[in-house]
Design goal:
Blueprint lengths: L5 H9 L5 E4 L6 H8 L3 E4 L12 E4 L8 H14 L5 E8 L9 E4 L2 E3 L10 E4 L1 H9 L2 E10 L18 E9 L6
Parallel strand pairs: 1-2, 1-3, 3-4, 4-7
Antiparallel strand pairs: 4-9, 5-6, 6-7, 8-9
Bound molecules: S-adenosylmethionine.
């Protein structure tokens, strides 16, 4: 069984037992299991949440690289609607230093779909630092932003037949703004 993602462990260290976490991109469930084992309640992002259900944090590892930048922006807006003001988001995003950047069918300046392999046809978007800051800044205040080589960290969910080589992701800790004017 694979270990929880480093950002999941960072989130666990920050939240009190019993807190509610919104997880986006469950995959094999490695993060879900670790969150529950730490006494956290896990919600999945498949329905709009009422304010009484808002979570104290959100977690998304190796999922917010799927889709176009517009789709990822829509997901980020949905996450912001599902967590409290001031709540942290722990998330990874594709980096333009990832070996897959520029490979496959180009669907936009930083969006590509592999033409073969396990992820054939799956749309991936990649950010440089300025682009990622821009994608987050309206709804989230960035606390930490770092680039990490993730071949040994990314889930095996989508890479069963060929292991990742040269995968690089942004690791982000950000805080949901209380208001857009903040
Ligand atoms: C590689 S898995 C990562 C799973 C888990 N968070 C982890 O780190 O082990 C990618 C996740 O993104 C989700 N996802 C969202 N949109 C997707 C898409 N268009 N193609 C593939 N996966 C997608 C999948 O359901 C899956 O849960």
């Amino acid at each position: 069984m694979r270990a929880a993602h480093p950002l999941a462990r960072q989130l666990i260290a920050r939240l009190p037992r019993g807190a509610r976490v919104l997880e986006i991109g469950h995959g094999s469930g490695r993060n879900h299991r670790a969150l529950e084992a730490a006494g956290l309640e896990v919600l999945h992002f498949d329905a709009a949440l009422a304010p009484a259900e808002w979570a104290a944090a959100a977690l998304s590892t190796h999922a917010l690289l799927h889709g176009t930048p517009e789709e990822i922006a829509t997901l980020l807006a949905g996450i912001a609607c599902g967590i409290d003001g001031g709540a942290p988001l722990f998330a990874t995003f594709g980096s333009q230093r990832d070996a897959r950047f520029g490979e496959g069918t180009a669907l936009g300046p930083a969006t590509f779909a592999p033409t073969d392999g396990d992820e054939r046809g799956v749309v991936h978007s990649y950010y440089d630092e300025a682009g990622l800051r821009s994608a987050l800044q309206e709804l989230f205040a960035i606390e930490e932003l770092r680039e990490v080589e993730v071949d040994a960290i990314a889930g095996g969910w989508a890479h069963a037949s060929a292991p990742l080589r040269g995968a690089v992701h942004w690791f982000v800790v950000a805080r949901r703004r209380f208001s857009r004017a903040e």
